[in-house]
Amino acid sequence: MAINRPHDDTLHPLAQPVGTTLDRYIMQRQSAFAYATGELSQLLRDVALAGKIINREVNRAGLIDLTGGMGSENVQGESQQKLDVIANIRFKRALTNGGEVCAIISEEEEDIILTGNNQGKYVVAMDPLDGSSNIDVNVSIGTIFSIYRRVTPIGSQPTIDDFLQGGHEQVAAGYILYGSSTIMVYTTGHSVNAFTYDYSIGEYLLSHADLRTPATGTIYSCNEGNRNQYDIRVQEYLTHCQQQHYTARYIGSLVADFHRNLLKGGIYLYPPTTKNPQGKLRLLYEAYPLAFIAERAGCRATDGQQSVLDIEPHDLHQRTPLYIGAPAMVQSLMDHLQPGLTNSVLPK
């Protein structure tokens, strides 16, 4: 009698493997987490869920009048877009309902957001929707997040100390890019991995395993409209880039510019200006998380004087200059900035 034996169908042309889902990957790698008791795994799933919801809102924004401004400003003094408010609400709800987060800070709110989950072991710093003004013209935007294990006693009310631990104390960081495809990129301090959202099955699938940036590149990204306000030495570096026939690529969405340079090799510059002598990007929920990712992917991130992760935090909405990208390009910039970037050579 013939016996039907199980066989491998993965190579069948009509049934190719779907790939590794984000949930499955998180479960497989949980043992590599610093605190492998499941809470961080669940927290990453909560972030991914919120990203799916924001992806839906972004895709139908033009149909349900979610584009344009709110007519109000956030704590940064910047005009709030409708999607800024929506994204902030969605992420707060997802992180609160998930139960693992005891407190949140957001670009959109001045004070610490208490979730009521005082038993939660983690706090999250986030920019719910970076570059949201670009949604009106269908340009890529993103979410940036940073995760810390709280330092206040579990069961107590979280404080500012939970957020001002410094960049090296991040246990995970990542971003979600909403563009031609939606991609979630994150690290827990080991490798950097990217997951692309498959709309047909409603899952993130591993698309870029163990991301490593090229050692150098030919792309530079900055707002050259502000060139005359930059430190003279930064201007000289931009001239150097042009003399080397580098390509200027600037989207105006931090996540999108960073993601492109991470994959292709390049440098992103957001220097101090005469208008913003301390820099404009926020340390805790923009510079720190991207620097954490960058260094795990072979990039460098500096404020012009020191590694971004070495900057001492003192305020929830602290600002910083940021130069981030391929290590050889960042080193070339630093050679131009020696002995260190100071405001003394900013144009008058």
Automatic annotation (TrEMBL):
<feature type="binding site">
    <location>
        <begin position="130"/>
        <end position="133"/>
    </location>
    <ligand>
        <name>substrate</name>
    </ligand>
</feature>
<feature type="binding site">
    <location>
        <position position="129"/>
    </location>
    <ligand>
        <name>Mg(2+) 1</name>
    </ligand>
</feature>
<feature type="binding site">
    <location>
        <position position="280"/>
    </location>
    <ligand>
        <name>substrate</name>
    </ligand>
</feature>
<feature type="binding site">
    <location>
        <position position="286"/>
    </location>
    <ligand>
        <name>Mg(2+) 2</name>
    </ligand>
</feature>
<dbReference type="GO" id="GO:0005829">
    <property type="term" value="C:cytosol"/>
</dbReference>
<dbReference type="GO" id="GO:0030388">
    <property type="term" value="P:fructose 1,6-bisphosphate metabolic process"/>
</dbReference>
<dbReference type="Pfam" id="PF18913">
    <property type="entry name" value="FBPase_C"/>
</dbReference>
<comment type="pathway">
    <text>Carbohydrate biosynthesis; Calvin cycle.</text>
</comment>
<keyword id="KW-0963">Cytoplasm</keyword>
<comment type="similarity">
    <text>Belongs to the FBPase class 1 family.</text>
</comment>
<feature type="binding site">
    <location>
        <position position="130"/>
    </location>
    <ligand>
        <name>Mg(2+) 2</name>
    </ligand>
</feature>
<feature type="binding site">
    <location>
        <begin position="268"/>
        <end position="270"/>
    </location>
    <ligand>
        <name>substrate</name>
    </ligand>
</feature>
<dbReference type="GO" id="GO:0005986">
    <property type="term" value="P:sucrose biosynthetic process"/>
</dbReference>
<dbReference type="InterPro" id="IPR044015">
    <property type="entry name" value="FBPase_C_dom"/>
</dbReference>
<feature type="domain" description="Fructose-1-6-bisphosphatase class I N-terminal">
    <location>
        <begin position="21"/>
        <end position="208"/>
    </location>
</feature>
<dbReference type="GO" id="GO:0006002">
    <property type="term" value="P:fructose 6-phosphate metabolic process"/>
</dbReference>
<dbReference type="InterPro" id="IPR033391">
    <property type="entry name" value="FBPase_N"/>
</dbReference>
<keyword id="KW-0460">Magnesium</keyword>
<feature type="binding site">
    <location>
        <position position="127"/>
    </location>
    <ligand>
        <name>Mg(2+) 1</name>
    </ligand>
</feature>
<dbReference type="GO" id="GO:0042132">
    <property type="term" value="F:fructose 1,6-bisphosphate 1-phosphatase activity"/>
</dbReference>
<dbReference type="GO" id="GO:0006094">
    <property type="term" value="P:gluconeogenesis"/>
</dbReference>
<feature type="binding site">
    <location>
        <position position="107"/>
    </location>
    <ligand>
        <name>Mg(2+) 1</name>
    </ligand>
</feature>
<feature type="domain" description="Fructose-1-6-bisphosphatase class 1 C-terminal">
    <location>
        <begin position="214"/>
        <end position="335"/>
    </location>
</feature>
<feature type="binding site">
    <location>
        <position position="127"/>
    </location>
    <ligand>
        <name>Mg(2+) 2</name>
    </ligand>
</feature>
<keyword id="KW-0119">Carbohydrate metabolism</keyword>
<dbReference type="InterPro" id="IPR028343">
    <property type="entry name" value="FBPtase"/>
</dbReference>
<dbReference type="GO" id="GO:0006000">
    <property type="term" value="P:fructose metabolic process"/>
</dbReference>
<dbReference type="Pfam" id="PF00316">
    <property type="entry name" value="FBPase"/>
</dbReference>
<dbReference type="InterPro" id="IPR000146">
    <property type="entry name" value="FBPase_class-1"/>
</dbReference>
<dbReference type="GO" id="GO:0000287">
    <property type="term" value="F:magnesium ion binding"/>
</dbReference>
<dbReference type="InterPro" id="IPR020548">
    <property type="entry name" value="Fructose_bisphosphatase_AS"/>
</dbReference>
<keyword id="KW-0378">Hydrolase</keyword>
<keyword id="KW-0479">Metal-binding</keyword>
<comment type="subunit">
    <text>Homotetramer.</text>
</comment>
<protein>
    <recommendedName>
        <fullName>Fructose-1,6-bisphosphatase class 1</fullName>
        <ecNumber>3.1.3.11</ecNumber>
    </recommendedName>
</protein>
<feature type="binding site">
    <location>
        <position position="250"/>
    </location>
    <ligand>
        <name>substrate</name>
    </ligand>
</feature>
<feature type="binding site">
    <location>
        <position position="223"/>
    </location>
    <ligand>
        <name>substrate</name>
    </ligand>
</feature>
